[in-house]
Specification:
single chain, six-stranded mixed sheet, binds magnesium ion, alpha/beta, about 260 residues, three-stranded antiparallel sheet, globular, binds adenosine-5'-triphosphate, about 25% strand, 7 helices, 9 strands
Amino acid sequence: MATASAPVKEHAPAIPHAARIDHVSKSFPGTAGRQLVLDDITLDVAPGEFVTLLGASGCGKSTLLNLVAGLDEPSAGSIATDGRPALMFQDHALFPWLTAGQNVELALKLRGVAKAERRPEAERLLELVRLRDAHGKRVHELSGGMRQRVALARALAQDSRLLLMDEPFAALDAITRDVLHDELTRIWRETGLSVLFVTHNVREAVRLAQRVVLLSSRPGRIARQWTVDIPQPRRLEDSEVAELSREITEELRGEIRRHGQH
Ligand SMILES: Nc1ncnc2c1ncn2[C@@H]1O[C@H](COP(=O)(O)OP(=O)(O)OP(=O)(O)O)[C@@H](O)[C@H]1O
Ligand SMILES: [Mg+2]
């Protein structure tokens, strides 16, 4: 017998985590033998979780993100993700000869979306990042913030369960960054995506995340983690955000002092 209840749309993950990083180490060949960059990193990202990875410059954040993205192989340990993750960098990496809409449509094409569906879907995604009117604009006609919005729409076009972001807002001015924090929080909540977000900005990490993971330097190890239960939407200037940021900054300073960086 038919029931009146609406069908429940549920994503059945292939693995019970969006990402599972299991005892991962990474070393690169250097002038004085192999340089250990990441040392025994174990970290799970739960489905729908927003995790920020925080650490000093050169501590191995991008290296770890690239490993999760499958762009490089760990030297030891293993990484499993729920499907292929989407990636977004500081540099928007959009194709300048295409319009905003065409950049998004290309990602849809690569995903195998039928031609007739690409345009309406690209419009929906641009609407989601509040760029509905930019569909026909070329990259050079867009501001830095708008370009990152298009890059986000393009990443969302991959329909991944996990979004990997490597300092995506670092090149933006403070106000634009603040607006994009709000947008990212809204989109994360609307889509139920898992996000692994790399930054060296403590306040940004606290503003966005449910969990902040601090990496030490040389080699990168997980130094400490914080669960952030401050209700969203948060503001950078909220006293709770400021207070936790101070605590984390102290810890980060200690890490940097220990490793003789400035
Ligand atoms: N392909 C590579 N070959 C050799 N060394 C590398 C390679 N990729 C990264 N490294 C080294 O690994 C270390 C960590 O680099 P990584 O880019 O991951 O740091 P990061 O934390 O992202 O820094 P930043 O905050 O400046 O972006 C650095 O010492 C870097 O020189
Ligand atoms: Mg980096």
